[in-house]
Write a structure and sequence with these properties.
The complex is a heterodimer of chains A (405) and B (503). Chain A has helices spanning 2-16, 39-54, 57-77, 81-88, 95-109, 114-130, 133-149, 153-161, 172-178, 185-198, 201-217, 222-235, 241-257, 261-276, 282-298, 302-319, 325-341, 345-358, 365-382, 388-399. With 405 residues, chain A is mainly α. Chain A starts with a helix and ends in a 6-residue tail after the last helix. In chain B, strand 29 (394-396), helix 3 and strand 30 form a beta-alpha-beta unit. Chain B is globular and about 60 Å long.
């Protein structure tokens, strides 16, 4: 059960985060609430939330809330809904509303009914109404997605119409795509093409995300899948490589979720070729290499994956001096996560240790706390258990948090 | 009169505090989070950086008064934070040692400025025709650029860079900050803006900010999504409010008073444009400036001031509920591009200048479009109308022969825009100009010595038909200009107030 939970959480890292969705992928469609958790994972989440909450409200309320929300996201990835809900009550700004909405989304995606999530929707809306413009819009957009996921299209549309920024609208297409039936396929494709044809920057973006969702939904239908891939690759023709790489990785993730390693490998290799065409700064390139390594491994090419991890580490070592110290731990974490997925647990632990030390290179406690939260959440979600030394070090770092912030 | 007495008392308290305060010479970068307290006076001795990971908190009532001529300056790096916690009763002042805090002088360039750098998206693929670093025209979150006026130290190049992939970035908060007599660069033949904002994200909050007498622009914003409210820019030596590289924010409640700070050429002491808006570099890059300005009172220079709004490189800006008065030249000036001759409106399939004014705000350029991040939209600042517009505004005493030529051509004077054109009485309570000054052999300036910017009346002429929809950033102020008939939000904390130029 725990192994299953960890695997699912890792899949969440691979796919859920790239898709911008909070919540686990539940192929069975069963409702999940609070699942089993290893003690070390629970302890890591506790340590992370304590570290986030140690950040003083004045003047760092925004950073504190952002970090607390990050822990909530990790809780959701690990099916710790009750713990997430408890933590949400302690978030002091609009991010609590976002968290309630994400919690509702995750639960509905796992099969919950309106009655089971109504309390979260109400709490999210209460927070939204107190939030400033774009923050309010963002919460409402998520709530509209929840309503659409519940099949309450009218409520979803009504909510979407209260969103001020048009850029936040159109995300419902993605939810529709998640539930698209074969009978509705053609109509959905036409609707997305219409969105692409508007030329509206963010509508096109939302359409691409919806295409990716359709791609996953109709993966088993080779003809339709091919058509969607073609649409994606046409729509992205003027889009940055970062977008294309992201979509290719999503497509590879879909292939893996459908046990199609061969096709997954094709898309990962395509993403790798594309990545090599861009001159990325190390703070972007190293995590991207880690992501490719992880996908290569999952697609059945462990040799390539290992080479990519080594190359990414070498790049980090060579360029470390030029990377701002507050960025270093965040760059290392995806490498550790990839190693964990690849079964290189000792190497993952070593990298996590490096990350923990990198996180205290800055003399101020705010970035230290942020990296501590990042490390703890990453280890909890990826199922990497700290050894005695690392536990001691993480707790030392936590205990050392204090002025200067 | 009673308010003036109260203001003098406040200044008196401040001066008494200054006399007793201990001077702290700031000579080193801020690597460890620090708080500057009101019982000290902080004197910047060189270019000071708040380094990544550090926070600088400045208490209400703190004076940062740097030695004139040395060029001390303050910059906040990406990943660092600044919290300027001024209040209406106790503002934070950044100025030079030549400022006696009660008297306006013809001066600027006496110290540096406040520069804040963030991780928001910027479009800076090309500058003067040359590619900038490895930047592209796509909004991929990979573009960075060195901040104007800052010098990179070998091995610490990142400290002077702005731009990134996080439009939600948070550089802190700035409230009730008065910046005076600045613009000097350490060791370079260059100039600084009063407040420079590079790639600042929308989680950053800025309100009640004043720039008085700067040598270069008042505020310049490059990219990012930061919103501003209660902004006063007075007597700056170049553009008052300058935008570039894809700013996608909003600003509400402002006062621009064009003038001069030094006897020097236009752009280095004599005011240039009130608003200068560049879209992107190059103009077909994204993100492109797409912004909304509400409730500004803009007072130009009738003889030698430049334009009310200058437009370049595909900028898309909506001006609502504003007052434009005493402009030296045109209300709307089509500048085309930023001077490199390679681009401008219509370049590479982008919207033409004319079409930008007739195209709905929902229609965004597909040229070099992209999806830089799954969940965060790029363009949120405009929520209705056309991409470029001037609506619900009032134009008064703009006497240049071509003052309205381009505005008329762009439909600004169409009744549907609900603009009031040249009413018989001034839209503000009082404006006093000093004797004309002839500067640099070229410019005649009539400096504003006093303004009561409150709306003249609350009648149908001066009340706008529409107000911005409340979104808790925008206040639904149903009047034209930056001030209603009763409240002067500059009173009590600003240099203009301390110097007796408003009350």
């Amino acid at each position: 059960m725990i192994e299953h939970g960890i695997k699912k959480a890792i899949l969440f890292i691979c796919i859920g985060l790239c898709a911008g969705l909070v919540g686990c992928r539940d192929q069975e469609g069963k409702q999940q609430t609070t699942g089993a958790l290893e003690t070390f994972q629970a302890d890591l989440l506790t340590l992370a939330f304590d570290a986030a909450t140690a950040i003083p409200l004045d003047p760092h309320i925004k950073d504190r809330a952002r970090m607390q929300e990050q822990v909530v996201t990790a809780c959701l990835a690990l099916d710790q809904d009750d713990l997430a809900y408890t933590y949400l009550s302690r978030i002091p700004n609009w991010r609590a509303g976002m968290g309630y909405a994400n919690l509702a989304f995750k639960k509905v995606k796992s099969g919950a009914t309106l009655g089971q999530v109504e309390v979260y929707l109400t709490q999210a809306m209460d927070v939204a109404e107190q939030a400033e413009g774009w923050r309010q819009d963002r919460i409402k957009a998520r709530l509209a997605q929840v309503q659409a996921l519940l099949g309450r299209d009218q409520a979803a549309s009504a909510l979407e119409q209260t969103i001020e920024a048009v850029a936040e609208t159109g995300t419902l297409d993605r939810i529709v795509a998640m539930h698209c039936t074969p009978e509705d396929f053609q109509r959905q494709m036409e609707a997305l093409q219409a969105s692409v044809d508007t030329g509206h920057f963010d509508r096109v973006k939302n359409a691409l995300n919806a295409y990716a969702e359709l791609f996953d939904r109709f993966y088993g239908d080779v003809a339709r899948r091919g058509l969607i891939e073609e649409k994606i690759k046409t729509a992205w023709s003027k889009h940055p490589f970062t977008t294309r790489v992201d979509l290719l990785c999503q497509m590879a993730g879909s292939a893996l979720a459908h046990q199609d390693q061969a096709r997954a490998l094709d898309w990962v290799n395509e993403a790798k070729t594309m990545t090599e065409q861009v001159d990325w700064a190390p703070r972007f390139l190293v995590p991207q290499m880690a992501r490719l390594a992880q996908l290569h491994f999952q697609a059945g090419d462990p040799v390539q994956a290992t080479q990519e991890i080594q190359a990414a580490l070498a790049l980090f070592d060579a360029r470390q001096a030029g990377i701002v110290n507050i960025d270093r731990a965040g760059i290392l974490r995806p490498l550790a996560e990839a190693c964990q997925v690849m079964g290189k647990r000792a190497q993952a632990l070593t990298i996590y240790k490096r990350g923990a030390e990198a996180g205290v290179e800055n003399p101020n406690s705010r970035p230290r706390a942020e990296d501590l939260v990042g490390t703890c959440c990453s280890m909890a979600v990826s199922g990497a258990e700290p050894d005695v030394d690392l536990w001691q070090r993480l707790r030392e770092i936590h205990d050392g948090l204090g002025a200067p912030w | 009169m009673r308010k003036k007495m109260m203001m003098l008392a406040l200044v008196g308290v401040l001066l008494a505090g200054v006399a007793m305060a201990e001077e702290v010479l700031v000579t080193d970068n801020i690597a460890v989070s620090s708080t500057w307290t009101a019982d000290n006076v902080y004197n910047l001795q060189t270019q000071i950086y708040v380094l990544p990971g550090a926070s600088l908190t400045i208490e209400a009532g703190t004076l940062v008064q740097s030695t004139a001529g040395v060029g001390g300056s303050l910059a906040v790096c990406r990943g660092a934070k600044i919290y300027v916690n001024g209040t209406a009763d106790a503002p934070v002042i950044m100025t030079s040692t030549n400022d006696d805090l009660v008297t306006w002088r013809e001066a600027a360039n006496e110290w540096g400025n406040l520069t804040v750098m963030g991780n928001g998206l910027i479009s800076a693929s090309h500058y003067k025709g040359e590619q900038v670093l490895e930047n592209t025209k796509l909004p991929d979150g990979l573009n960075v650029k060195q901040m104007e006026g800052l010098t990179a130290v070998v091995g610490e190049e990142d400290n002077v860079m702005y731009g990134g992939n996080d439009d939600d970035d948070d550089s802190g908060s700035i409230s009730y900050l008065s910046l005076r007599y600045g613009g000097k660069v350490v060791g370079l033949a260059n100039e600084l803006n009063g407040l420079s904002l590079g790639g600042i994200g929308r989680e950053t909050t800025i309100d009640h900010i004043e720039i008085m007498n700067n040598v270069d622009d008042g505020i310049e914003i490059w990219g990012g999504t930061v919103n501003l409210s209660y902004v006063s820019i007075w007597n700056v030596g170049d553009d008052s409010f300058d935008v570039d590289e894809g700013w996608r924010g909003k600003a509400q409640f402002g006062l621009i008073v064009q003038g001069y700070s030094l006897e020097a050429k236009q752009g280095s002491g004599v005011g240039d444009n009130c608003f200068e808006t560049d879209g992107a570099e190059d103009s077909d890059a994204q993100p492109v400036t797409t912004a909304s300005i509400y409730n500004f009172t803009v007072v130009g220079q009738p003889k030698s001031g430049d334009h009310g709004t200058a437009w370049r490189d595909n900028a898309r800006v909506q001006y609502h509920n504003c007052i434009w008065m005493d402009l030296g030249e045109q209300l709307v000036k089509f500048d085309g591009d930023d001077g490199d001759g390679a681009s401008g409106y219509g370049y590479n399939g982008t919207l033409s200048w004319e079409d930008t004014w007739t195209t709905d705000y929902t229609v965004e350029s597909t040229v070099n479009a992209g999806d830089w991040w799954p969940n965060n939209p790029l363009y949120q600042a405009q929520t209705s109308g056309k991409l470029a517009s001037i609506t619900d505004s009032l134009f008064f005493n703009n006497m240049h022969s071509k003052a309205y030529t381009e505005a008329e051509a762009r439909g600004v004077l169409d009744p549907s825009n609900n603009n009031v054109v040249e009413p018989e009485v001034s839209p503000i309570r009082e404006l006093v100009r000093g004797d004309e000054v002839f500067l640099y052999g070229s410019y005649t300036m009539a400096p504003v010595t006093y303004i009561n910017p409150r709306a003249f009346s609350w009648d149908s002429i001066f009340a706008a038909d529409t107000a911005p929809e409340e979104d808790t950033f925008l206040v639904p102020a149903q009047f034209r200009g930056g001030f209603g008939p009763y409240d002067n939000w500059l009173a009590g904390w600003s240099a203009a107030s301390s110097y007796g130029m408003t009350d």
